[in-house]
Design brief:
431 residues; mainly alpha; two-stranded antiparallel ribbon; two-stranded antiparallel sheet; 18 helices; 76% helix; disordered N terminus
Length: 431
């Protein structure tokens, strides 16, 4: 066998291996999605049993989100150091333990402890799966990160009805216990097949439209890098805008008395607000691989500019046409089509700029922008209450999107070129 044919065989094997690794990461993401997105059906049954109050119970959710978000940099460092098999295997145990403990929790303290354990597990899975995808797919980072993130965004859709059914027939304790064990076991088993690429596994060229660094930056280096903090600011701006718009859909529909008006689109008929919320979840899952794929072909900053500006125009359209139930549903879908892509574009951009060796830890630090955005959201509660409050909120969201779009081309793109011209090696690609 010649050297070239052996290399070709290895390349084919590596190509199949990376797609298997991508699918395995998506499976893990789907399995942990319920810990955040499947929480709501449990709140009322817990309150009915213990009478702790919804406010106190929902603090468990807040603790979970904060733990899951803010510790991802540490999780990413550990995944980069010890590998996804060890870390995600341990995360599977955390995921199972969190919901099993929820099933027995007879005090708020235990409920909050379970939230911390669950946040640890989900943070490891989220950071580890996205980071592994970035390492295996230098040529399709946007698509790979988008597909992986969509597993978390849409994963809970498969188990919403089964969980609700078990809560009604066997009680919320049984749902916590059995789904917790099942989800954790799947993550534990699938994690045994995960691995980071070895030298020679990934020899595919970078996407033609995307420059990529061949220098691997560690966390101490990226903290001193201006492009990182511009990305961080953009992540927060778009995150705040999308979350604010999401929270105000209901008040907008109620003010226009369109929330319960039946709307038929593609032979599906639902009340306008219900339709809009369902479409929100679908678009939020679709946008991640779609815009990630687009960014692989036209560049990250160009895609950010288009997506963020599209969201701003869609929000303005909602302000203008929300009185029409059909336009309300369609435009709300466009708003969230142009929002969820941040979970594909920013991890791909981060790996492009700072290399793949520490990609999990580096994106973990950038991902804390989601936590920062969630902390800004309560500011909206300080706005004057009453009909029409949502108008100011939507205008603020649109302005934040426009600012982020301008930053993508006017600031981030020049800084990226300056970083690559500073002497670090980059893969050949158009700018």
């Amino acid at each position: 066998m010649t050297t070239s044919s052996a290399a070709d065989i290895r390349l084919v094997a590596s190509s199949g291996a990376r797609w298997r690794q991508l699918v395995l990461g998506i499976v893990c993401m789907v399995m942990v999605a319920n810990l955040q997105l499947g929480w709501t059906p449990f709140v009322d049954p817990i309150d009915q049993k213990y009478h702790w109050g919804r406010y106190a119970i929902q603090w468990a959710f807040t603790i979970f989100v904060l733990t899951q978000t803010w510790l991802v940099p540490l999780h990413g460092y550990l995944v980069d150091r010890f590998g996804p098999r060890v870390m995600l295997g341990g995360a599977g145990i955390f995921v199972a333990a969190a919901w099993v403990l929820n099933s027995y929790a007879d005090s708020l303290v235990l409920l909050y402890v379970a939230a911390v354990i669950g946040g640890l597990g989900v943070g490891i899975v989220y950071g580890g799966a996205v980071g592994n995808a970035l390492k295996w797919f230098p040529d399709r980072r946007g698509l790979a990160a988008g597909l992986t993130a969509s597993g978390y965004g849409a994963g809970a859709a498969f188990t919403v009805l089964p969980i609700q059914g078990m809560i009604q027939t066997q009680g919320y304790e049984a749902a916590f216990f059995w789904f917790g064990l099942g989800q954790g076991l799947v993550v534990l088993l699938v994690a045994q097949l995960l691995r980071a690429p070895e030298p020679g596994d990934v020899s595919m060229p970078a996407a033609e439209a995307v420059q990529q660094s061949r220098h691997d930056y560690a966390l101490p280096e990226i903290i001193k890098s201006p492009p990182f903090w511009v990305m961080y600011a953009m992540f927060v701006l778009v995150g705040v805008g999308g979350l604010m718009a999401q929270a105000q859909l209901g008040p907008m529909a109620k003010d226009f008395h369109t929330d319960n008006v039946p709307v038929t689109i593609l032979w599906v008929t639902l009340p306008a607000l219900t339709f809009a919320l369902a479409l929100d979840r679908g678009m939020n899952g679709l946008t991640r691989p779609f815009f990630g794929w687009v960014s692989d072909h036209i560049g990250r900053e160009n895609t950010m500019f288009i997506a963020f500006l599209l969201e701003a125009f869609a929000i303005y359209g909602l302000l203008s046409f929300a009185h029409d139930p059909v336009r309300f549903v369609i435009l709300s879908g466009v708003v969230f089509l142009a929002w969820g892509e941040i979970y594909a574009l920013f991890p791909a951009m981060c790996a492009d700029l700072y290399g793949k060796k520490f990609a999990t830890a580096n994106y973990g630090l950038l991902y804390t922008a989601k936590g920062m955005a969630s902390l800004v959201i309560p500011v909206a509660n300080l706005l004057p209450a009453g009909p029409g409050t949502w108008k100011l909120v939507f205008m603020i969201a649109a302005v934040l999107d426009v600012i982020a779009a301008v930053l993508a081309l006017a600031v981030l793109k020049p800084l990226r070129k300056r970083l690559f011209s500073s002497g670090k090696q980059v893969s050949p690609a158009s700018s």
